[in-house]
Amino acid sequence: MSTATAAVSPTVSASAGIVFDNVCKFYGEVLGVNRVNLTIPKGITSLVGPNGSGKTTLMNLMTGLIRPSRGRITVRGIPTDDPERLFAQVGYCTQFDSFPRGMTGREFITAYLRLFGRGADEAARLAQSAIDRVKLGEAADRRLAGYSKGMRQRIRLAQSLSHDPNVIILDEPLNGLDPLVRAESIALFQSLGAEGRHVILSSHVLHEVDAISDQVIMLSHGYVVAEGKIQEVRGEMREHPVLIRVGCNQPRRLAIEVLRQPQLLRAELIESAPGVASGLLVMTRDADAFYLDLNRIVASIPELEVTSVAPADDDAGSVYDYLVGRGQGAQS
Amino acid sequence: MPSPALAQITAVFRLEVRKSFFARRSLWVYLLALAPLLLFFGYTVQTRMESAQRQQLAAQNQKPLTAADFAAIHRGMSEAEVLSRLGPPPRRITFRQRRRDTHDNIVVDQNQWYRYSDGSTDYSIVIANGTVGRIRSNTAPSVNDLETTFAGIFQFFFLRLAVFFGCLGIFMNLFRGELLDKSLHFYFLAPLRRSRILAGKFLAGLAAAITIFCLSVALQLFTLARLTGNSLPHAASYIAITALACLGYGAVFLAAGLLFKNPVAPAAALLVWESLNPFLPALLKKFSVIYYLGQLSPVSVASGPGTSALFALLVSTPDPISPLAAILGLILLTALVLAYATRRVRTLEIDYSSE
Ligand SMILES: Nc1ncnc2c1ncn2[C@@H]1O[C@H](COP(=O)(O)OP(=O)(O)O)[C@@H](O)[C@H]1O
Ligand SMILES: [Mg+2]
Q1: Which of residues A235 and B337 earns the better pLDDT score?
Q2: Measured from the CA of A57, which atom of ligand 1 is nearest?
Q3: Residue nearest to atom 4 of ligand 1 (CA)
Q4: Does A85 sit within 8 Å of B15, measured CB to CB?
Q5: What is the Cα–Cα distance from A37 to B313, expressed in whole angstroms?
Q6: What are phi and psi of A214, to 5 degrees?
Q7: Do B264 and B232 fall into the same domain?
Q8: CA of A49 to the centre of ligand 2 (A)
Q9: Percent of chain B scored above 70 by pLDDT?
Q10: Which of A147, A169, A153, A323 is nearest to A234 (CA)?
């Protein structure tokens, strides 16, 4: 688990960054994210992973919208259950495409600025500058109900920036934007990053964000599988993780054995019926080493019978090829 | 540092108050508030018509009649005697009645129905076969009757149903409505304690509920006064009790809105709980809003003659406490419920997906 525990940049002091300390989040039985240890420094950081990999979960955890099942998160030293201090620093543009009813874009931004304790004049001024920043123009005085998807995305972005936060968290901010708006948004994120803020964005396509990211965090199935500067991550991706399905009569026993391997990212029981495990699903960085070790384990434990071994699907491999742009002729 | 807290609560209040008054989800609250007004309007129109009829009848008597004249009429008296005492009836209705005689033959009687009035009470006297049969009288409602009628409707319809469901509509949607609209996270992403969001929302709901329902009571009393010419006493008490009801039910439904996604089950459970209050042991009674409101009722609904035993039991207050104690008790109950709701909202997670 070497990569999952290493800080993205060792020079960041804990109080200046966003720190995840052994964080797990379960939605009932469903895993959101597991064993996340991260320190996110200033600049633009991208969370990258396919749908369901845990990007939104990490962002909701950073902002206290959900609470970790285990572990602790601090943002610039502030615990996430202290909204009064947290949101003086943090702005979060969520993935929820919804608004309070019956307002214009400008009213929407101004109303919530009043919650920040700003007076009417100051709120109006800040709202105007946020509207200018996302180039919404006079559409700001129309009713939100009549906005196009792109306009809704921009007004939400403006709202999350309106109080001038130091930490800006944006969930899939480039999703569904036309090329022109996309280029404008990217320029905006870069200028925010250059101003010395934390800018954290998520995307399910790496090549969409790699050019602008100072660092990338790769997620898969709720685990951080790689992180660091984009060149480092690309290096790690060469030995991208694979999923292997092993059918056997004693999956729990096998799990204990294989978890000793350093390359193993995770192992999970496959249940044929509730409580009845019929096999093991493992994710490893090194398939060859895993097969070798599996042979050794089977040989040393006579009562363990392995009935099948096969790559679970091309999921992990193809996803990472896709993510890093291999096979698409993108940058390498 | 009371001032930033106040400023933040005010900001939440300002955002919420319009929603509380005009939420599409709770426009039916106005119908609830309007219903008793229509009821009293209908009631007074009917009493007025009846009283006009009585006056008209009384004016047509051959000589002025008093209650004493009618008291002298009794069953079995001859028709001639009635006529000599009361004069010819202003209204006379002839009707036929079939009956079987002793030989089991069907005979048809020609009966008369005499109607008189002394101005405040009207009498109908049935004359069958030349003698007096049944006598019925109908007296115009007195101020006293009006008071008990109002108190009864206030207790049973207004507090227990109109204010109850009105507060459900207003307060249960404070958080639940924003979860359904997926807009609660905007509050949770602002730098204010969640207890202040709750306070601002509760106050906004309270402003709406108190305005709507206290105005309704005031208009009810006003309508009754205008139409009957008798103004009812205790108007201030009724309005104050209504405000306290909004406070208590408001807190309860605010908390329920944080606990349940679907309002039907908690509403039904609370309605049953509140109705069962008279049958509960003393300690449990105190965890009910209606218990305190019942103690404050300025008019005893059960005191009049002719109230049924069940009705009397339903409104009885077997262990009366002083009004001050009742008010303090209700405020304490409200505070407890709000404290619980605050704890819930502090740990509330934004999860719109499971709606
Ligand atoms: N509210 C929820 N209830 C149950 N499961 C959830 C909920 N939110 C997310 N999940 C699960 O958690 C995992 C991570 O989801 P999410 O963080 O939304 O991923 P991403 O944003 O990368 O698409 C997924 O398996 C998803 O199904
Ligand atoms: Mg997501």
Answers
A1: B337
A2: 17
A3: A27
A4: no
A5: 65
A6: -75, -35
A7: yes
A8: 9
A9: 93
A10: A323
Residues B228 and B81 in one domain: no
Closest residue, chain B, to A27 (C-alpha): B351
Per the structure, the complete domain to which residue B64 belongs is given by 55-139
What is the count of structural domains for chain B? 2
Q: Chain A within 8 Å of B186 (Cβ-Cβ)?
A: yes
Axis crossing angle, helix B289-296 with helix B235-259, rounded to the nearest 10? 180
**Which candidate from A86, A98, A115 shows the least CB-CB separation from B183?**
A98
CA-nearest residue to A101 within chain B is B181
- pLDDT tens readout for residues A43-73: 999 999 888 899 999 999 999 999 999 999 9
Q: Where are the domains of chain A?
A: 18-228, 242-324
At which residue do the structure tokens 């939104």 appear?
Answer: A56
Nearest to A112 among B181, B186, B350 (CB): B186
Q: Is the CB of A55 under 6 A from ligand 1?
A: yes
| Residue at which a domain ends, from B139, B164, B191 | B139
Nearest of A111, A148, A110 to residue A130 by alpha carbon: A110
Q: Does B6 touch chain A (CB under 8 A)?
A: no
pLDDT interval class at B301 (50, 70, 90): low
Q: Which of A198, A203, A227, A204 is nearest to A215 (CA)?
A: A227
Q: Is the pLDDT of residue A237 over 70?
A: no
